[in-house]
């Protein structure tokens, strides 16, 4: 019973349940005797072959790595070791090195039937890292492959509850939802999902043509409405201008002369236009009545 108090434990679920992983202390019986015998033989071999035994007894891991040591099939007490140098017993210990750097992978395109019965192909990219080497080694066979498969199924299940409009408009919310599901599911494996991004949404060719035709028709209808509103405003302005000009007889003639001046400024040509007799009569000097007699 005293040996079990020193046993290494790893969290297996979010509820706080723990599972017995194993311990490297003596537990009595045949296993203890065989383990002691192997340890004595290994130490004799190490001493006899020293210093050449250092090549197999001293291991090294990088700053971004951790090593999980199994001694006679049980996790060595103390958890993962590293970075730097550490000592192992060749005949008793086996190690598994875990990389703690962020890993990214592409989720293959998934053929998804949306909520409004539209088939789309969606792919994504996932960034994750291992934050608990013990759980990543002892709780799952292949943490990287399991995360890839889980990301594919989570992407398919999440987008299956969305409409096409939601998928095209709310990519950030969808990515956040997938991130939460993945992070909670991979937590017992010692994996923390850092980021999920939806890369591309590919639509069928027929649907793309239909959407393009709909958008073009909408733009044409909007352009016609804008053109009609512009003509309405222009006609209203012309009516107000005509009312103002009609209130003064000389204003029409002045507008006529202004139009001719603008035409002459644009094109160098001779323009012949008639002058009203009334205008010429006002310009000519009046003869005295005595000369008429």
Notes on the protein architecture:
With 293 residues, the protein is an alpha+beta fold. It contains ten helices and ten strands. A three-stranded antiparallel β-sheet has the order 5-4-7. Strands 8-9-10 form a three-stranded antiparallel β-sheet. Strands 1-2 form a two-stranded antiparallel sheet. Helix 4 (143-159) crosses helix 6 (171-186). The protein is rod-shaped, with a radius of gyration of 44 Å. The model is unreliable at 1-23 and 289-293 (pLDDT under 50).
Structural class by secondary-structure content: alpha+beta
Task: Indicate the radius of gyration in whole angstroms.
Answer: 44 Å
**Low-pLDDT residue intervals, each spanning 5 or more residues:** 1-23, 289-293
Average predicted confidence as pLDDT: 79
Large-scale geometry? rod-shaped
Beta-strand percentage range: 15-25%
Short description:
With 293 residues, the chain is of the alpha+beta class.
Keywords:
293 residues; single chain; 23% strand; disordered C terminus; 10 helices; three-stranded antiparallel beta sheet; alpha+beta
Topology record:
Layout: E1 8-11, E2 18-22, H1 29-48, H2 54-57, E3 58-61, E4 65-71, E5 74-75, E6 84-87, E7 93-99, E8 103-113, E9 119-130, H3 133-138, H4 143-159, H5 164-169, H6 171-186, E10 191-202, H7 205-246, H8 249-266, H9 277-283, H10 289-292
Antiparallel strand pairs: 1-2, 3-6, 4-5, 4-7, 8-9, 9-10
Helix pairs in contact: 4-6
């Amino acid at each position: 019973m005293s040996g079990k108090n020193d046993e290494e434990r790893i969290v297996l679920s979010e509820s706080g349940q723990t599972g017995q992983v194993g311990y490297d202390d003596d537990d009595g019986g045949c296993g203890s005797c065989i383990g002691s015998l192997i340890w004595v033989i290994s130490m004799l071999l190490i001493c006899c072959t020293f210093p050449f035994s250092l090549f197999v007894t001293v291991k090294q891991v990088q700053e971004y790595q951790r090593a999980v040591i199994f001694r006679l099939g049980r996790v060595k007490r103390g958890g993962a070791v590293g970075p730097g140098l550490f000592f192992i017993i060749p005949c008793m210990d086996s190690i598994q090195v875990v990389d703690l750097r962020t890993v990214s992978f592409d989720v293959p395109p998934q053929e998804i039937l949306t909520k409004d019965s539209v088939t789309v192909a969606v792919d994504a990219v996932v960034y994750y890292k291992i934050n608990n080497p013990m759980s990543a080694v002892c709780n799952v066979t292949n943490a990287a492959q399991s995360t890839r498969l889980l990301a594919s199924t989570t992407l398919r299940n999440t987008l299956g509850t969305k409409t096409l409009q939601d998928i095209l408009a709310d990519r950030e919310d969808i990515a956040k939802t997938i991130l939460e599901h993945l992070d909670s599911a991979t937590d017992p494996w010692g994996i923390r999902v850092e980021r999920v991004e939806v890369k591309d949404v590919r639509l069928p060719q027929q649907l793309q043509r239909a959407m393009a035709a709909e958008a073009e028709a909408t733009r044409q209808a909007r352009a016609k409405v804008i053109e009609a509103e512009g003509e309405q405003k222009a006609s209203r302005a012309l009516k107000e201008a005509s009312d103002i000009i009609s209130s003064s007889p000389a204003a029409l003639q002045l507008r006529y002369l202004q139009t001719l001046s603008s035409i002459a400024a644009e094109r160098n040509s001779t323009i012949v236009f008639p002058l009203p007799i009334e205008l010429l009569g006002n310009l000519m000097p009046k003869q005295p009545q005595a000369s008429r007699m």
